[in-house]
Design brief:
- The protein has two domains: about 60-120, no CATH class; about 130-235, no CATH class.
- The chain has seven helices and eight strands, in the order ααααααββββββαββ.
- The chain has helices at about 5-15, 20-30, 30-50, 60-75, 95-110, 110-120, 205-210, and strands at about 130-140, 145-155, 155-165, 175-180, 185-190, 200-205, 210-220, 230-235.
- Strands 5-4-7-8-1-2-3-6 form an eight-stranded antiparallel sheet.
- A hairpin with a 5-residue loop joins strand 1 (about 130-140) and strand 2.
- It is globular, with a radius of gyration of 24 Å.
- Residues about 70-120 have low confidence and may be disordered.
- It binds zinc ion.
- Zinc ion binds next to loops.
């Protein structure tokens, strides 16, 4: 049986229009159908987790910031189009003149001023952390568990949180990869430092949407070959 191109599976999972023959194939094929379902779940979960409410700071915080800037620095409020990420769901828009003012003050008086103004009375909001998918990290030969990778949404970023132990490097170092479910494409996510059992790597929704859902840790040598060594120690597929 000829299976449709992987891009068409991803397109289907994303809800895009695909040729009639592809839809028919997916209904019948015991390999492609479940793969599309799995892709759909991971994509849905990562997308849903993005719809978190960003809470604007309470008025008292703004007042404190404005007071802080107004008095000693004699700054004139002015409108600027340099808006930060707008709050979702129609929260009242606030002209952030103080951002420009703080930046200007930082440049004129030293960046310490900016940091002090921003930190005072306005503790950085703790971003929400949400696990959207997990992958067991098992050895390829004996399927021994060596840890777990989690796809976590931290605020507005998507991280791959890798926990692994007992991975002998002997020589060389450990590299984390995301392999496409077509098993033809892969991207390097980063290096897992020696002796570190947990590390977070920033990835993107795009990668997940394209089907990069297999987590792989390989042993790499200090050579001039940036490609995957082929020496995979553990691997697992992200699933909800
Ligand atoms: Zn198929």
């Amino acid at each position: 049986m000829t299976h449709p191109d992987h891009d068409l599976l991803v397109a289907t999972a994303l809800g895009e229009a695909v040729p009639e023959q592809v839809s028919q194939h997916l209904e019948l094929c015991s390999e492609c159908g479940p793969e599309v379902e799995s892709l759909k779940q991971v994509i849905d979960m990562t997308r849903r987790s993005r719809d978190v409410d960003l809470v604007p700071p309470p008025p008292a915080v703004w007042a404190a910031i404005e007071a802080e800037l107004d008095a000693p620095l004699q700054l004139t409020p002015r409108h600027t189009e340099a808006t930060p990420t707008p709050p979702r769901h129609g929260a009242p828009r606030r002209s952030p003149w103080w951002l420009a003012a703080a930046a200007a003050a930082g440049i004129a008086l030293g960046s310490g001023v900016t940091a002090a103004v921003v930190n005072r009375d306005s503790p950085a909001p703790t971003p929400s952390v949400q696990t959207v998918a997990k992958a067991p990290l098992d050895t390829l030969d004996t399927k021994t568990s060596r840890g777990e990778a989690r796809l976590v949404r931290v605020g507005t970023t998507l991280d791959l949180d890798v926990q692994a132990r007992g991975l002998a490097t002997d020589s060389g170092y450990l590299e984390v990869w995301l392999i496409n479910s077509d098993l033809k494409r892969m991207v390097s996510v980063g290096v897992l430092p020696a002796g570190v059992e947990q590390q977070r790597f920033v990835i993107s929704q795009d990668l997940i949407d394209q089907g990069y859902v297999i987590v792989d840790i390989s042993r790499e040598q200090f050579d001039d070959k940036p490609a995957h060594s082929g020496d995979s120690l553990v691997r697992g597929t992200l699933a909800v």
